[in-house]
Amino acid sequence: MADAFTMLKDIKETGKKVVGFYCVYAPQELVLAAGALGFSLCATKEEGIPDGEKTLPRNFCPLIKSSYGLAVTDKCPYFLYADLIIGETTCDGKKKMFELMKTFKPVHVMKMPQSYLDESDKAYWLNEVRLLKELLEAELGTTITDEKLQDAIKVLNEERRLMQQLAEYMKNDPVPMTGQDFLKLLWGRNFVTDRTEFAEQIKAVISDIEDSVANGEAAKPKGAKRILVTGVPTGVGADKVIKIVEDCDAAVVYIENCSGMKQYVTLVDETKPPLVAIAEKYLAIPCSCMSPNPTRMQQLVQLVKDYRVDGVVDITWQGCHTYNVESRIVKEFLKQNGNTPFLQIETDYSQGDVEQIKTRVQAFLEMMA
Description:
Blueprint: H1 2-13, E1 18-21, H2 28-33, E2 37-40, H3 49-52, H4 62-72, H5 77-80, E3 84-88, H6 92-101, E4 107-110, H7 119-140, H8 146-169, H9 179-188, H10 195-214, E5 226-231, H11 240-247, E6 251-255, H12 274-283, H13 294-306, E7 311-317, H14 321-336, E8 342-347, H15 354-368
Parallel strand pairs: 1-2, 1-3, 3-4, 5-6, 5-7, 7-8
């Protein structure tokens, strides 16, 4: 973390602008087209929670408590050096967090529609994206042209294609890498300062995986139970459930949540006007904050087929009401469309329930035998 402080301090001294965001709904193309660096600020470590609880209720979502605690104490370098924070109204807890943050940091909150299905929702969201563009131009002292947006779209679409290519290898049996390693690659994209270099790094990883597959090397034995993980954002540091699943000798073959592949499955349409295409891509993200949320259900059923999934593990943070409620909907939908075994795990960032979760996961895997 000390290196990140130094790196960002040096970057800011060159005049480069930094923008932080807390959700995959924040259109990163706009940040890139504005000539700024964008970083994800969702905290996935327990260390920020005690400071967060000095202001926020103890029964709040751990992601919000940790994020706020690290921000208010300046322990997160990406927040500290940010010129602007992009928030969004995906849940009531985050809305109130942003309200508090506005007292000590410039924060712009994008107002989400309640659905992605109607034309009125799309028009509303397009206006929110347009407002963000205008704000970035004003706050960062730049002009975001269509040409800059088109260039940014191409860069980020290429990253999405690379992540899709990585995910394709997880269809293999045996799998060429663990879910934990896959998550690290996905998570690393949140802290990129050189996008060309990052793309080359992912290409090198893909080349290594191709060699491993050709040589018959694998991360898990052939025939290991194949698990799809879905639910709340699950980043490095808050990946205990994925670790437990793999410690129980199963293979996590797909991480569907927004810190996993959810943000990569749809490209921005490069044939449409850039702002319209960007708005369409981001609104199509099937988060549980949307109601109803049929796209998530349909995608999960298709993923179960494509990745030959033996069971679905749905992770819910304590205090995350939208994902907690939608977990029941997912369970019933999977039951009606293939009868896929399903396990919901409600937890937080602590290690206190590790043995309990392990017992439940073991029983879940044995049930599939």
